[in-house]
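Reading a protein record of the kind used here takes little practice once its layout is understood. The fold follows as a row of integers, each naming the local backbone shape at the matching residue. With these conventions in mind, the following record can be read line by line:

_____
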Amino acid sequence: MDTFSKRKFIIAGIMLGIAAIFILRLFSIQITNKTYKQFATRNVLRKIITFPARGLIYDRNNELIVYNKAAYDLMIIPREVKSLDTTELCRIVQLERQDLRDAIKKAKQFSYYKPSIVVGQISPDIYAPLQEKLYKYPGFFVQSRTLREYPSKSAAQTLGFVGEVNQRIIDEDKYYRSGDYIGVSGIEKAYEKELRGIKGITKSMVDVHNRIKGKYNEGVEDTTAILGQNLMTGLDADLHAYAELLMTNKRGAIVAIEPATGEIILMVSAPTYDPNLLVGRQRSTNYGILDRDSINKPMWNRAVIGRYPPGSTFKLANALIALEEHAITPFDRFSCSGKGTKPISCTHSHVSPLAVREGIRESCNSFFWNTFREIMSYKSTSAESYQIWRDYITSFGFGQKLNPELSSEVKGNIPEVSLYDKWYTPGHWTSMTIRSLAIGQGEIEATPLQMANLCAMIANRGYYITPHIVKAIQDTNRVYRELKFDKKVVAISPEHFTTVIDGMQAVVDETRTLGATVHLDNIIICGKTGTVQNPHGADHSAFVGFAPRDNPKIAIVVFIENAGNFGATYAAPIAGLLIEKYLNDSIVPKRKDLEQRLIETDLRNVVQVKK
């Protein structure tokens, strides 16, 4: 074979080898390797998350207090973005150019191929013109979602708010991805899994102009979003709004409970804020303003965070314990010399000597000091007697968290024996050492919720149901499922409640101030005022009560910070109006002047008064 023939075969072999390489490579690209197919598919296929509408929240009268409104997120897939007119896009979505650039940069850092939110929570007014122009912006598309709306604009701290998830939440729960929203506080947080629903996925075909042309694979791979479950609460929306009106320009809390069920009717914290401020694109700005308000602290839920000495309202608990332990009888009397009484003086002169009923009616410090002293001398040592007393107090709900729905709730403080042993050494402290506990002062700290729960327990004559906000949840079949809560029975005999309740009725019916501001002709109200000593400023004003006396429908506590006066001046009449409004559905004309005076009273600056 000549040289030419050999070269011909070599060249032919090389060409066949190159052809084989190309054929194998094309086979790999088109048949075995899915990467380029995926790239091509991404150019025409868009996977859109369908967010379920969050569950609705209703009050006890089936009035809607939290619902949803339409909103939209502008999404971006960085790989598909071409050159764009940022000026026009910023004008449409009402965003600063630098903010848009930062959002696109953040999206690229997250992923070139996966969608990210560029502008979140776009209103329907902005969405309409954006949708008309969206074909100009390849790589951008709109994803629908819902935002919360609060028609009554009240109960902000109790309902809570929804905010964007952080990386920690994403890592802990695979349900969430960047840009998703979650309940941050209140019952929005407590019932997040019920409220959030289940996401759906829609796969759509899009054309070169970024317009959806139809379902991918005829929608076989789509999944439907499942709506969040609705909640039925024990709150009374109208009464809540009225209570917040009465607390205008005041700091404090109001809690009302239905004794028979433990349902929370009211949970007011003042000052408050419009919960709609924490919805939409201005949420972050508004949150910063509210959070930085160190004077009014509107983000605090004082009803469960506030740690206050309960003051004279706590005397009810001491009376029950003394009667049960036979430290006193309903007929034992103690003398009082008014302001000259030792070691705890009384605030005013009154009838003397006094038994339990009169002691409660007059809120006599001398009577309750002597009562506490008798409790503390029941056993051989003060420590033993104190432990018995403390066991009773904690059984009433003090020193512990009561509500499982509010993560911000604090326990308050009922000191342990070890604290006094540490301060005074074992065996060297007596009732005299800790005498402030007799009148609800000293080291005792209670939340307004705990005080309302004490009142509900007295109203029930010996038990309470775990206080709760949500009473029923709608299941997947849209049928409401009633929630079950524990019943806690305390070791106090029924006859002792009658004695204490007699005193509470006398407070309202037989004292001049409350007779004019709280007493109602058609309803028997039982209550107890409290002036809470405050070393940091003016005293606090407190009132606990329930009504009617028989088959009670509402137990309530009103606590006003720095009111600078007795509980009868502000807290009691506010409670009286709320009880009247709840049970009678209106305020009688003769009490309208009282109502207006309380609304107009500004107590915010009394905090500056020092002792």
User: Anything to note?
Assistant: The chain has a mean pLDDT of 89. The chain has two domains: 46-233, 237-608. The CA atoms of residues 542 and 559 lie 4 Å apart. DSSP finds 22 helices and 19 strands in the chain.
